[in-house]
Amino acid sequence: MYYPHFGLQQPPFKITPNTDFFFSGGNRGAVLDALVYAIGNGEGIIKVVGEVGSGKTMLCRMLQTILPERIESIYLANPSVAPEDVLHAIAFELQLDLPKDADRLKVMQALQAHLLNRHAEGRQVVIFVEEAQGMPLATLEEIRLLSNLETKQDKLLQIVLFGQPELDENLNQEQIRQLRERITHRFNLGPLHTKDVGEYLIFRLRAAGYHGPHLFTEASIKKLSHAAQGLVRRVNILADKALLAAFADNVYQVTPKHVKAAIQDSEFAESLYGPKFSRYKQIAVWFLCLLVILSGMLVATMMWQRPSVQQSAVKVTAKPIQPVMVAPATVNSSLPHAAKQSAVAVTNTQVKVNDFSTLTNANVPVTLKDVAVAVDKPTLEGAEGLVRQRLGAMSKLLKSAKPETVLLQIKSVPNAVSTDEKVEDAQLVAELESLSRQVEVDNIYLYRMRKADGLYTVVLYGAYAQRADALDALKSLPPSIKNNRPYLRTLAGINKDIVPLN
């Protein structure tokens, strides 16, 4: 819309990476040159870290453009690749002819043969892994194993990880230390300074066909740089909207007024108001915390003033306690979910665990003491039965569903007991009880797998015919489950890991 108004031949601030608009300032050119050198001459694994919108994808596209022809590059953009699928994904990108049901060993052999052929031809292969911070640690470890492929003198494969700062946090975990030790080059894409932002704006305008003086005043550049926090993607968004605002005013230079309109339209309020906005937010948080503390003190005072139940209770004599009839509706509304799945067949002197439906359907006499026992001590036997049930559900799913069915692996619980014992591991029971309060129990699946340090129980969620459906389900999981970094697994891959139940 505004292009003819400013003498532009094409949009100057599109957020889609276009190598014709690569800006070498702000240390980007130096990082690019160092990456080219590291890929061509270095060994091990290379890591590039930068905030969202700092220009990592543009850097990756530039590498693919300027690397010598002898270097063959492949690009992995999907971070949610399961460990058993990543080798197939790399083989697919290298256009290797492999059957769909090829196992891991065959795929690895084919990859090694291909890399040896390329090495004999004087060629080199490099893998670019985008959004590496979202890749499961097990998948990163599988990729790390590829770096072991080598001749006596050279590595057969170079690996470059592009990720957000969370990638550093993942690599600091103990189970991924072998990959961390193989990182030989580390690069950080920092934010652009105000001077760099001004040079970036005029560079993009020139690349789009503009030939006049700078369209942005110094004051507008400072305001835009502060709001964008030096992030390239934000600079592009704000600059495009500011030019549109100047066009609407029928002027030929962008002022702080136009940048302010762009900021308001882009919801960069905190960047606009800076420390003042942060102070207001901090005051509001402290005020809410004070309200919570005062409310807690008030409740505690009221509870302290109430007569103690123990002080007002009638002393128990030798006379037998008469049972109290508890209606089914009262039991169902007063007992927690875990206790509802158990039952109490009671007398005046003892409590016996049984099916709860007997109690609720037959008006069995229950004393108040017995109800308290049922509430305070839900039986472990019910949880263990649920564990065995979900193990059985996994076995049925393996028999009835297609191998390409996708599940979400939530976590692996270590130190599970051997499969021939009757009592389940307490940690596994606790994990399953916690999950059953957050998601549907019928969508939880379990299976056993053996590692070098012992037996593990793997916890999975859902079963989806399409990978897209599994990704949607992954996004909708509760935050506490997402903290475990769940990832996609296929039944075909699970079937290779599973330890048969006795």
Topology of helices and strands:
Layout: H1 3-6, H2 28-41, E1 45-50, H3 56-66, E2 71-76, H4 83-93, H5 104-120, E3 124-129, H6 137-146, E4 157-163, H7 166-171, H8 177-181, E5 183-189, H9 194-207, H10 218-228, H11 232-248, H12 256-266, H13 269-305, H14 309-312, E6 324-325, H15 328-334, H16 337-340, E7 343-346, E8 351-354, H17 356-362, E9 365-366, H18 368-376, H19 380-400, E10 406-413, H20 426-436, E11 444-451, E12 454-464, H21 467-475, H22 479-482, E13 487-490, H23 491-497
Parallel strand pairs: 1-4, 1-5, 2-3, 3-4
Antiparallel strand pairs: 6-9, 7-8, 10-12, 10-13, 11-12
Helix pairs in contact: 2-3, 4-5, 4-6, 10-11, 10-12, 10-13, 11-12, 15-17, 19-20
Brief account:
The protein has 502 residues and is of the alpha/beta class.
Q: How would you describe what is shown here?
A:
The structure is a single chain. By secondary structure, the protein is of the alpha/beta class. Among the domains are: 27-189, P-loop containing nucleotide triphosphate hydrolases (Rossmann fold, 3-Layer(aba) Sandwich); 322-378, no CATH class; 397-497, Alpha-Beta Plaits. Helix content is 50%, strand content 15%. It contains 23 helices and 13 strands. It has helices spanning 3-6, 28-41, 56-66, 83-93, 104-120, 137-146, 166-171, 177-181, 194-207, 218-228, 232-248, 256-266, 269-305, 309-312, 328-334, 337-340, 356-362, 368-376, 380-400, 426-436, 467-475, 479-482, 491-497, and strands at 45-50, 71-76, 124-129, 157-163, 183-189, 324-325, 343-346, 351-354, 365-366, 406-413, 444-451, 454-464, 487-490. The chain has a 5-stranded parallel beta sheet with strand order 2-3-4-1-5, sandwiched between helices. Helix 4 (83-93) crosses helix 6. The radius of gyration is 31 Å and the shape is globular.
